[in-house]
Amino acid sequence: MICVNSDKSVTVPKLPLIFLSLAALLAIFFGVRYLFSREFMPYHAVVASKSWSELELGVQTIILGMLRIVGGGLASFGLALLWLMFPLNRGESWAAWAVLTIAATTLVPTLYVTIMLRRHEPKAKTPIVPTLIVLALILAGVGTSFLT
Q1: Residue 99 pLDDT more than 80?
Q2: What total of structural domains would you count in the chain?
Q3: Residue 58 domain-assigned?
């Protein structure tokens, strides 16, 4: 529900913004973690059945490059969510659709890869749960923005 204030400004209740803020902060946290990692994540070692030091330098360089791309993407996703809260707070419905669009294009592939890696090596603690939490927060935030 969109609220019309006494000064005729339009705002969205705060609950959707809280959900989206939490999702954004989680995405930024993981993005920064991947951006500044010096080696692959522990679950990567489990999937690869090799430690970081066992990998050739060229392979390490490729993996670090991919981690930087993933980290930048997650951080950008989180920052975009934060920026979209301004039009969402003003009651601009296009912003909710933009949130869903960037969430789908970021989180669906992320979820697919984390599940694929877990299926390949069930002992790997891939970030399936954090990805689902961010997705749930997005859906709760956008859903409550439409309902409230």
Answers
A1: yes
A2: 1
A3: yes
